[in-house]
Structure formats: C-alpha cells, structure tokens
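Notebook B, p. 112. Complex prediction, attempt 2.
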Amino acid sequence: MSHLSLETLNHYLDNELDGAERAAAETHMATCGQCQRQLAALQELFLALETLPPAPLPRDMTAGVLARIAPPPAPARWTWRAWVALAVQLAAALILAFTLASPAVQSLFAVGNGVSFDGLLATFNGLWLRADSWLVSAQTVTSTWMNQATSVAPGPLAALAPLQWALLLAVTGLLWLVGTGLLLTPQRGTMNAER
Amino acid sequence: MDSWAGLPEQRLLTLAQRGVADAYGELVRRYQGELYNVVYRLLGDQHESLDLTQESFVQAYNALASFDTSRPFGPWIKRIATNLALNWLQRRHVLTTPLTRPAQPGAEEPEELALPDVSTEPERVYLAGERHELLRQALLALPPHYRAVIELRHFQELSYEEIAVALKLPLSDVKSNLFRARQLLRKRLEGEV
C-alpha cells in the first residue's frame, strides 16, 4: 500500500484537493494508521498556529497616525452661494463708487446747499457736536494724507465730506459682514453635515 | 469618540475618503491590534512593528481615494502591512546578518539561522511553560519567504492562489514554500532544530 505524501496531507488540510483527490485520500486514511498519525501531527501544528494568541498592543497609535496624515487638499468650495456673495459684493461696491462720485451726491453734501454737513450739525447741535469735532479731525488727517498721496492729481476722494466718509465706512463694513457671512455659512453647514 | 465607534465600517471609510480624520482614527482604533500582530509575527521586534504598523495606516490613508469602500478594510490594510513588513525584512536581510546560510550544492533548501535577538533554547522556553512563545520564535527563525506564506495562509487565511497573487509567486512556489515552512516549524517545535 502506498501512503499519502506529506504534500498531499498538507493540501488535504488546506482544502486544496479537488473532489476526487479528497475522496481518495479519505478512503486511504480510513484504513491507514500511519497516514492518520501523520495527519494528526500536521493538524497539531495547524491548531497551534490557529490558537496562537495575539500579542498585546504596546500602546494606542491612533494619535500618532492622525498626527502623520496630512489633511487632504481642501476641495473647492465655490458653491453657488459663494459666487452670489462675490457678485453681490462687487455690484454693491461698484454702485457705491458711482454713487459717491456722482455730481448729485457731491452737490448734496457740498457746503451751502441747505443739507450740508454744517446744516446737519446745526440741527442736531447737542448730539452731533462731539461727532463733528471727531469727524473734522478725521477729515483733517485724511485730507492731509490724501493730499500727500494725490499731490500730483487730487482725486475725487480727497474732496469727500466727513459724512460721506462715515457713510462709506459704514457701507463697506456692512458689505464685509454680509459677504463674510454668506461665504462662511455653507462651510459650517458642510461641516455639520459630515456626520 | 463613542459616536464614531457606533458607525459601520463602510460609513467610516466614506467619511475618511472625504478627509474626516476622526473617522479614519476610528478605523485605526479598530484595526491597530490586528495589524500590529501581522507585522509583529513577521518582524518579531516590538518597536519596528509599531513603526511599520503606523506606516501602514499612513500609506493606506494616502491611497484611500482609490479604495473601493464596498470592500472590507481589514484584508486590504493587512496586505499593505504585510508587504511593508516583507520589504523591511528584505532590507534587514541584506543589511544585517542573513537569516539563512547559502544552500550547499545539492541541498534541498537553505539552512535557517536563529535570529540574534530571539531566544531559541527550547528547554528554557518549555520550562517557562511558554509554548506559544516557542511557536513565535520558531516562526521568526524561518526564512522570510517561508514566514510570509505561513502568515498569509494561517493568519490571513488566503488560498494558494491568493497567496501567489499577493507575493507575486508561481502557484507551485507557494505550495512548496508552505510545505517546507511547515516542515521546518514541526522540526523546531519537536526540538529537532
């Protein structure tokens, strides 16, 4: 009787024999003590490997991995909201610039037109007195700076009245707040939606 | 942390692909033990195994964009770790003491050498009642290409064909390497080596 080879026993335990080979091996082993012992010895090794307990993890490495993974490049967040915000800001800035530069507005705030800055100050005497002094000081400083900066050809900004400056700053700030809010809102939404 | 722990793996993978680092952190927490053991069985050195396990997670993250999230993460990252560990073994094999002596003319296979940092005294290990430790040391004393097939077959439960693909070896080499690796393990465990 020819015994099963060790290779065949290995393949038998690995379930790598086809149906006929497997049946023939089992038929042989049913009556062959030597092959049974060989198989048992091999099974013992398989069992030892399968029951080898895992080595304990010396330390948690989550933080180490997270520290090493570079944040992926931020995907473009130019959503329609961002484009609308940008367009609104640009349009508002253009409108503001043309409005301030128009002769009607210039004449509205010109001294001697009844609604001049001096006239407003006279109307709201107590309330605006302090503002007047502050704005005049600001105008002086600004005008000096503008004159120096535009000494060759003074631009229209150099001729702005204090109230115009105040309006300009207020509108610019408002636009900045609105634009920033529009730009940041979708990002917050995206972050919250991640989970 | 608890909210991440409750999420299924597929969801974590999708979020990680979108760059949510905490989702990947949860995957690291889930697989770090298994992955460390894959590397540790191949290298046998705690510090090297920790380094390579971490490196495996980093490499997997960098390749995550191409990963099909409908597939399980475990086998994929174990394959990455296995390859890294085998490459590391090859480099160490070249740079330091060879793990095998050159085969003598006519010899069937190269003769294995004990790793310098691993105790291989069977009596001492037996006396300490550490049969598992003896098996670990027997595994580490195998040549790297034998260690690899044992790892893939017995611990990662790959078929012969899958091992051949993973190691880029002919099927016949996989069969013979596995057979010889087991023979060497048996001899070592029986105290013949």
